[in-house]
Design brief:
Helix content of chain B: 55-70%
Strand content of chain B: under 5%
Largest interface: A-B, 61 and 61 residues
Largest sheet of chain B: 3 strands, antiparallel
Distance between the termini of chain A: 36 Å
Number of helices of chain A: 20
Oligomer: heterodimer
Order of helices and strands of chain A: HHEEHHHHHHHHHHHHHHHHHH
Helix content of chain A: over 70%
Number of helices of chain B: 10
Radius of gyration of chain B: 25 Å
Chain lengths: 498, 276
């Protein structure tokens, strides 16, 4: 069975989504259990693949039994095995946390909601596992369309923000497709490794350069790399909270993975770093992204919206780390895909709990929250410490690798940007802690002596358990960083960067 | 801002066009695209899949995995339209209108009012109901069965001529849409209800993916149709051809159901009355 894992990873949730859709019409109560079973099984399979890769090296799977480059094949190596595990884990944990808000906000649409939810995760898993450049585009479409619909489900300006996202996301996907089309015209292949084999004699051709440029811009647009981030804050803010905590941790990270995969496997590191010599420019772009993301976050007075700008800054971390072009930077970038997905999930889940209880996450709703929602705020603190980069949370370790990479690469602009962004994060989060901890002083001071203040008013257990699983996961991943880097990421580093 | 946008568009266009200088000439038989993978598709399609139409064999077999997800994209679009547009029934405004078929008199039932009309003589109508045009109604009524027959032909004949599940499904879906345009949405709903069209699309994609899983269950790889040879009284090559037909039927169902489903939601803004 284990040789079918790469296919099962995508097929199990895909099949389940049809059953969920049908159950939405016939037996709505089965929708949620089916979704849990689908994503649970794909989590198990992705862990199985990760185990296979660690013990026996990369695995591949020929769809339809056709050998590459004629058929489509899936290839899981050290790099994407890790990302697959992260995507399925985040999708699964967030799904469990989503149930109370779905039942509260749109109970009659639970069937289609879970259908699109599972399909979104399917699309992302396929994008990560595939070894075919066009297949990646098809799966990108699935993740994008489901993402647009889920985001538009929110209240207020959600539909408009989603429309902006549709426009810019479509441009991004088109640019990617155009890049793949250019490559197909001059190589005649869509298989990633096959293209990489055919490209070297064509490096002088203008077509390859333009294909690379247009493909990168498309991917950057989809990941919200500053200044192409304009769609991101509104889309993630107005989306319903279970959707924000699904899309924000996953979509940007998977697009960072796609960027790394394209440079590593299709265009090869030699082309990107030695022929085009783009690394210096892109790292400076990342510096701007980090600084601007952090500064824009400072201006926000809504926790959820503030987090969306932190996402913009974190994209800069990963892009910059990768383009530093040395082992530490690469390790930091890949480790940060894992860590940032978990940190963002933790923070967005915590904000989701606040929204579930209070109705929104503006600063006016925060006073006294440490007293009324101690568990939620506790997890928020863990997530915040991880974003700031305090050991032993995982955020510290990836930031450490990134800093190391900046020093080794002699790129002090990136180093300063990382430190600046960490300091800004301290300000951002301690401002929230201050409001949540001290603000209601005047109002509840009198009763604090008598009754003991307002009663605890927590989010339901179904939302707290996944939140704390994530928060503990942050610390666990931090403690096992050595294992993850040594057993997985080290093998993914391309030879040129060693 | 507008000028800046135009300048950027112009620049990107110029870059894209400038790269075409290094393209192989148009229609060049020596271009990489026609030398690398396509020769096998063109030369071996008949002996490897028993399908003379190379487009169909590439679409549904060599790169069938892509096509499965393309069909899923269509399914996603249908679900997305439903999720965003459909107004839940309990939130619909309650006053209703009934029209007496013979006399054309219309009754309006107030909110909460209950009536016992002989339902055979009355039909529910909406406030913006207009009488059907006699000629259009009759012409379309005779046309639709032939359109549907042609749709089935296009699906079934995809192996030998241009066509296949997508095209045939669109024709079938268009026939139902024609019914609702020429008659009324209610007439179309009577022929193909909301639930039916909403179930057609997942069932269609399920036939596609399920065929793949069947192959996997028979000990072959996902979507390796030659596995079907163990179930059918044919050889592995012919089994591929049958597998392609099976998934084309699934695609046709999914496309038809989704088209009708999206049309109903869009045309009536999710209310399923006469929005047109």
């Amino acid at each position: 069975m284990s040789e079918h894992y790469p296919a099962l990873l995508v097929i199990l949730p895909l099949l389940a989504s049809f059953f969920i859709s049908a159950a939405g019409w016939l037996r709505p109560v089965y929708c949620f259990p089916l979704a849990v079973a689908a994503l649970g099984s794909s989590l198990l399979v992705s862990l199985g693949v990760l185990g296979d890769v660690i013990s026996g090296g990369p695995v591949s799977y020929w769809m339809g039994g056709w050998p590459p480059p004629w058929g489509i094949y899936y290839r899981v190596d050290y790099l994407n095995a890790l990302v697959l595990a992260v995507v399925s884990a985040v999708g699964f944990v967030n799904l469990i946390a989503a149930r109370p808000s779905v039942e509260k906000d749109f109970p009659e649409k639970a069937g289609p909601f879970y259908t699109l939810y599972v399909l979104f995760v399917t699309g992302l898993l396929g994008m990560v596992a595939t070894g075919d450049a066009f297949n990646l585009y098809v799966l990108l479409e699935i993740a994008a369309i489901t993402g647009y619909a889920l985001i538009a489900l929110g209240k207020g300006r959600a539909a408009l923000s989603s429309l902006h996202y549709v426009f810019l996301g479509t441009i991004g996907a088109c640019f990617y497709l155009l890049g793949v089309g250019y490559l197909y015209i001059i190589t005649g292949s869509l298989n990633m490794e096959d293209i990489a084999r055919l490209l070297p004699p064509l490096y002088d051709s203008k077509v390859v350069t333009v294909a690379f440029a247009i493909l990168m811009v498309g991917v950057w647009l989809k990941m919200g790399f500053f200044p192409l981030h304009a769609w991101l804050p509104n889309a993630y803010t107005y989306a319903p909270s279970p959707v924000s905590s699904l899309v924000a941790p996953l979509m940007t990270k998977v697009m960072v993975y796609v960027m790394i995969r394209m440079v590593l496997t299709v265009f090869t590191v030699d082309f990107a770093f030695l022929v085009l010599r783009l690394n210096e420019v892109v790292v400076w772009l990342a510096v701007i992204a980090i600084v601007m993301g952090s500064l824009l976050a400072l201006a926000e007075k809504d926790v959820k919206r503030m987090l969306t700008f932190i996402v913009v800054a974190e994209v800069g971390y990963m892009v910059g780390g990768f383009w530093l072009g040395n082992q530490a930077g690469f390790t930091g970038a890949v480790l940060h895909i894992l860590n940032d997905a978990l940190m963002t999930l933790c923070l967005f889940l915590a904000v989701g709990n606040i929204v579930h209880v209070k109705g929104d996450s503006r600063w006016e709703s925060l006073p006294g929250l440490f007293r009324t929602m101690p568990w939620t705020m506790g997890a928020l603190v863990v997530g915040a410490l991880s974003i700031i980069g305090v050991p032993p949370t995982c955020g510290f370790f990836s930031k450490w690798y990134l800093l190391l990479g900046a020093i080794q690469g002699g790129h002090y602009g990136f180093l300063l940007a990382l430190l600046f962004s960490s300091l800004v994060s301290v300000v951002l989060f301690f401002r929230i802690f201050e409001i949540g901890f001290f603000e209601p002083f005047g109002a509840s001071h009198g009763s604090a002596h008598g009754e003991g203040g307002p009663a605890i008013q927590e989010a339901p257990l179904g939302m707290l358990v996944p939140l704390w699983m994530t928060a503990l996961g942050l610390i666990l991943v931090g403690l096992y960083t050595g294992e993850i880097v040594g057993r997985v990421i080290r093998h993914a580093v391309p030879g040129m960067m060693l | 801002m507008k000028t800046l946008g135009l300048i950027i568009v112009g620049l990107v266009g110029a870059v894209l066009v400038s790269a075409t200088v290094n393209f192989p000439p148009f229609g060049d038989p020596e271009s990489p695209a026609s030398l690398h993978v396509s020769p096998r598709y063109l030369e071996k399609t008949l002996e490897e899949t028993a399908v003379p139409n190379a487009v169909t064999s590439v679409l549904a077999d060599y790169r069938g995995f892509d096509t499965m997800f393309e069909t899923t994209v269509i399914f996603c679009a249908g679900v997305a339209c439903f999720l965003l547009l459909r107004v839940p029934r309990r939130r619909l405004p309650r006053p209703r209108q009934y029209r007496h078929r013979l006399t054309g008199l219309t009754f309006r039932i107030k909110e909460g009012g209950e009536v016992f009309l002989p339902l055979r003589e009355f039909e529910p109508v909406d406030s913006i109901w207009t009488p059907h045009d006699f000629i259009i109604e009759k012409v379309c009524r005779y046309l639709i069965p032939f359109i549907q027959l042609f749709g089935l032909y296009v699906i079934a004949h995809g192996h030998h001529s241009p066509g296949g599940g997508f095209q045939g499904g669109v024709i079938l879906g268009a026939s139902i849409i024609l019914l609702s345009v020429s008659h009324s949405l209610r007439t179309a709903l009577k022929r193909m209800g909301e639930k039916i069209s909403a179930l057609f699309s997942p069932v269609g994609v399920f036939i596609f993916a399920g065929t793949g899983v069947l192959c996997l269950g028979l000990g072959y790889r996902f979507l390796d149709y030659q596995a079907l040879a163990t179930l059918l009284p044919v050889g592995p090559i012919m089994a591929r051809s049958y597998g392609i037909l099976l998934v084309e039927v699934g695609v046709g169902m999914a496309v038809m159901g989704t088209m009708v489903w999206i049309f109903k939601n869009l045309a009536s803004r999710g209310r399923y009355d006469e929005g047109l």
